[in-house]
Write a structure and sequence with these properties.
Layout lengths: L3 H13 L9 H8 L3 H8 L2 H24 L5 H18 L1 H8 L22 H8 L4 H16 L6 H26 L6 H10 L9
Length: 209
């Protein structure tokens, strides 16, 4: 059973399917989640706090999904292709994620303002994390790159591992940036073919691990 916080976030996301963020009312979100409006304010502090939490959850879910794809026992090149294809699929289905990955925020979406400097810290740990700030597209790409290195060159610290890490970092960024380009402006050629060609064009050392 979802917590009150998850229920509130789900209700806010569902409201966005029919309304722009400016038309989403806190009282309606609380009612849809089956909790009091006071519970909503206790969790998020304000509508802007709710927006930050909603977007932070989308970023976290995306990165957890990347980790699941990378955990597959397939060659590195296949996993990078899978990450790129999954990124496109998720971004097309989820406007919030698409905005996070591309930096293109429409008027219908919650565009969180930065938390005010010196504002009182939330008593809710998850909200404190959301209030710290949201990742820019480049930070998300870097997070995917770091997770790819951790998954594909695990537990080694020798010179060869460092070489492979640098190679994988480059190939992973290529894969994700191709995916983001495909989200913004799809081309005729299949994404998997483009990504595989790009990652294979770099150093082949780690491509078949």
């Amino acid at each position: 059973m979802p917590t009150a916080r998850e229920s509130l976030l789900n209700a806010a996301l569902a409201a966005l399917a029919d309304l722009p963020w400016s038309g989403v009312r806190m009282v309606d979100v609380a009612s849809a989640a089956g909790v009091s409006r006071q519970t909503l304010y206790n969790e998020f502090g304000s509508k802007d706090g709710l927006a930050r939490a909603l977007v932070r959850r989308e970023a976290d879910r995306y990165l957890h999904g990347v980790e699941r794809v990378l955990a597959e026992r397939t060659p590195a090149a296949d996993r990078l292709v899978a990450v790129a294809e999954w990124t496109v699929e998720e971004a097309r289905a989820k406007p919030l994620l698409r905005a996070l990955l591309t930096g293109c925020w429409g008027e219908r979406l919650p565009v969180p303002k930065p938390a005010r400097r010196g504002a009182a810290m939330s008593g809710v740990p998850a909200q404190r994390r959301a209030d710290v700030g949201l990742p820019a597209p480049a930070e998300l790409v870097a997070a995917v790159r770091d997770r790819s290195i951790a998954a594909l060159v695990p537990g080694r610290h020798d010179g060869r591992a460092k070489e492979e890490s640098a190679d994988l970092a480059h190939r992973c960024e290529l894969a994700v940036r191709l995916a983001l380009s495909y989200v913004s402006a799809p081309v005729g050629e299949e994404l998997g073919v483009l990504v595989r060609a790009a990652v294979s064009a770099t150093s082949p050392r780690a491509a078949d691990r």
